[in-house]
Amino acid sequence: MADTVNKTLDPQLDRRGFLKGCTMAAAALGLSDAMIPKLVEAAATAERPRVIWLHFQECTGCTESLLRASHPDLARLILDIISLDYHETIMAAAGHQAEHNLQETVNNHPFILVVEGAIPTKDGGIYCKIAGKTAMDILAEVAPKASAIIAIGTCAAFGGVQAASPNPTGAVGVQDLVSGKPIINIPGCPPNPIAFLGTVLHYLTFKRLPALDSLNRPLFAYGRRIHDHCERRAHFDEGRFVEQYGDEFHKLGYCLYKVGCKGPETFNSCPAVRFNDVDVWPVSVGHGCVGCSEPNFWDTMTPFYERLPMVKIPGAGIVDNADKIGKTVLGATAAAVGIHAAVGIGKRIITGKKSEE
Ligand code: FSX
Ligand code: SF4
Ligand code: F3S
Question: Structurally, what CATH architecture does the domain formed by 226-356 represent?
């Protein structure tokens, strides 16, 4: 039954595409060129880990950005290095056969669990059901048997937009319910496919998960602040701002801080890795970052089109101030996370194994 999803997709990736994808992942991981052959070898020869991919409360944007991106090589590479045994959006199986596939892998094989979407916990979790079971119950059944869990997207990592106040369904992320397993968060709404690919390739090459930050995000992808790598940063430092979308300063590519860019408080690799073959990211096409990879961004980063609550902006030499802004708002975010974790959680899934790295 293994690999039922892969067989429904395109023909094999050619050598050129394979090498290109591995090279991109190596660059994202911050590895030197000398490490590329090791990565390529692992991608080509390592036993492909079985993956069960569960969908809960979300828009399927994570899957879309991963598999339908204008990087066909990237999508194909991801599907070449994992054995995707269960994925509700793209698997050929349906109904009882699909459920059988899920049980077969869960009960008989080691597997990595990927969760996309938040888990509603209010009223016994009735706001998301698949095959008659709540998302909470499915997670409670599958998570304890997984070798590791990847929460893909901000919904699975932190609850996502559906957790916005007043969070009517009690939506939470995987780590709010599951403990005792290695959990790696790959947030973003949607995340960059390279963050997922880099994580899997790191696992295959080095036999362990990449180093994580305090929010369980891989440091290689989330260790840098957007603002510090933004191509509009010189405009910020010089006090050249867009005052209104569509104004002359917008056309000149000035900094989007005053129209709401949350780059100073967001940690992600967007300016460096960018999206799709056209090599763009939100700020490069004229829209501020909304902080989509940060916990509670739906509450703490709104209104999206208003500037960060802060001090007045001097015309120049603002680098230090920008750094202070980031710290202040991140403090507020961390406090919000604490509150979020303390309330509204229906039940917790304890798996009994200690977390690893
Ligand atoms: Fe959507 Fe994924 Fe956003 Fe959530 O991405 S792009 S709502 S993070 O779970 O499908
Ligand atoms: Fe770039 Fe936004 Fe920072 Fe301006 S505020 S430099 S647009 S990240
Ligand atoms: Fe999200 Fe900001 Fe990147 S909105 S996609 S973290 S630029």
Answer: Irregular (4.10)
pTM of the predicted model over 0.90: no
The span from the CA of 77 to the CA of 13, in Å, is 7
Amino acid 45: pLDDT = 87
Ramachandran sector of residue 329 (left: φ over 0; alpha: ψ -120 to 50; beta: rest): alpha
What is the 250 CA–ligand 2 centroid distance (Å)? 12
The verdict on the CB of residue 190 being under 6 Å from ligand 1 is yes
C-beta 136 within 6 A of ligand 1: no
Do 240 and 268 form a contact (C-beta atoms < 8 A)? no
**114: buried, middle or exposed (CB in 10 Å: 19+, 13-18, 0-12)?**
buried
Instruction: Tell me if domain 2-222 and domain 226-356 are identical in fold.
Output: no
% of the chain beyond a pLDDT of 90: 64
Distance CA 292, CA 351 (A): 29
Q: Are strands 50-55 and 112-116 parallel, antiparallel or unpaired?
A: parallel
Spacing, Cα 252 to ligand 2 middle (Å): 14
Q: For residues 265 and 289, is the Cβ–Cβ distance under 8 A?
A: no
- Averaged pLDDT score across all residues of the chain: 84
d(CA 256, CA 262): 9
The CATH number of domain 2-222 is 3.40.50.700: yes
197 Cβ below 6 A of ligand 2: no
Answer whether 60 contacts ligand 1 (Cβ < 6 A).
yes
> Beta strand pairing status for 83-87 and 50-55?
parallel
Higher-pLDDT residue of 180 and 309 is 180
Ligand number nearest to the C-alpha of 290: 3
**Domain map of the chain by residue range?**
2-222, 226-356
Task: Please choose, from the candidates 42, 48, 45, the residue with its C-alpha nearest in 3D space to the C-alpha of residue 6.
Answer: 48
Say what the pLDDT of residue 15 is: 80
Atom of ligand 3 nearest to the CA of 192: 5
Q: What was the pLDDT predicted at 343? A: 28
Amino acid at 76: R
Measured in Å, residue 265 CA sits from the centre of ligand 2 at 10
- In whole angstroms, give the CA distance from residue 309 to residue 169: 29
pLDDT in tens, 116-140: 999 999 999 999 999 899 999 999 9
